[in-house]
Design a protein that fits this description.
Layout lengths: L5 E2 L6 E5 L1 E3 L9 E3 L3 H6 L1 E7 L5 E5 L1 E2 L16 E5 L10 E11 L2 E4 L3 E6 L6
Parallel strand pairs: 1-11
Antiparallel strand pairs: 2-8, 3-4, 5-6, 5-9, 7-8, 9-10, 9-11
Length: 127
């Protein structure tokens, strides 16, 4: 799958993460299944937490992904996909490796998913 690059100052970019659940009963060729996020989208909250290369923490509310070209896409959270939309140019303000983590809360249940990294690129200088 080809991913679009994130750049400093991007506005409206969809940041998509897919989370999985260990499925010990499946064959070794498919050890993971998509984690069903739909109960958290409908009856709780899903936050996408960010830490910039400078150590600054930020967060966005995540929703079920709506990008239909994703492998295994269903669109209701049962596929494990969550997305957050970059709200303004100040959000992605530093180039480098950003750490991203999903936190899902419904009632008394809180799940912290593994941290992933995404590279945010600088922009070309104007001539």
């Amino acid at each position: 799958m080809i991913e679009a690059q994130l750049h400093v100052g991007a506005i409206g970019a969809a940041i998509v993460i897919r989370v999985h659940d260990l499925n010990p009963g499946s064959p070794k060729t498919q050890p993971y299944q998509a984690f069903d996020l739909s109960p958290f989208f409908s009856g709780g909250t899903v936050d996408m937490l960010f830490q910039s290369p400078a150590g600054v923490s930020k967060s966005l509310t995540a929703t079920a992904a709506t990008i239909t070209t994703l492998p295994g896409y269903v669109g209701d959270g049962t596929d494990g996909y969550a997305q957050a939309i970059v709200p303004n140019a100040a959000f992605l303000d530093t180039d480098g490796r950003w750490q991203i983590q999903l936190k899902a809360v419904a009632g008394a249940e809180t799940i912290w998913f593994p941290v992933v990294t995404r590279l945010v690129y600088g922009n070309l200088a104007a001539p």
